[in-house]
Amino acid sequence: MSLHSPSEYDFFIPVVDIFTLDTEVSISRDADCLSPTAALIRAGYLGHVPHAPSLAFSLRTLEHFRLLHARKPSFSIEAFAKVLCDSYRVRAFDAYLAILRGVDKKINEILGRDTPNWRILNACPPCTYELEEEPTLTFGRMYVLDGGNSAKWMAEGARNHGDMREYTESDYLLPRTYVDKFANEVQSRNLEALDSLEANDDDEDTEADPTRRNIASDCSKNWKAAASDEKKRMWSIFDETGIFVSACHHSLLLWVADMVHSGELAKYPLAIISKVLELLSERSLAAYDIGCGFASTIRARSLGKAFEQQGCRICVDAFHGYAHNYTCQTKNHPNGIQGAGIEDFGAIEHFFSASNALAPVIRYATAYRRSVFLNLFFKQWDDDKYLNLATMIYHNYKQSINIIASESLALDGAKASLGIQDGDLEAWHQEEIEYIACLGKETEWDIHAMTYVELLQKLRDAQTCASDTSLQFISMVPSNYQFLPPSQDVSYSANVSATRKVETHRRYHAERLDTLQREVVALEVKMGVAHWWQPTSPEYQETMKYMAMHTYQHALDNLQRLVVQHLFELQKLNISQTAYKMCTHISKSLQTRCHAIQTAIKKYNDAASQLHPPRPPLEWSKVSHYSFLEEFNLLHEMRQDICDKMWARPAIRETLWQWLCIQRAKEEIERCNVEVRRLHMFIVDEDWHFARVLSSLEESPLYFAVQEFCKHRWLVNSQLLDRIFQIYALLGFSGVASPGLRKGQVDLDVEGDGMDGDDMQDIGTLVEYLSDLALTR
Question: Residue 302: what pLDDT?
Answer without folding.
Answer: 85
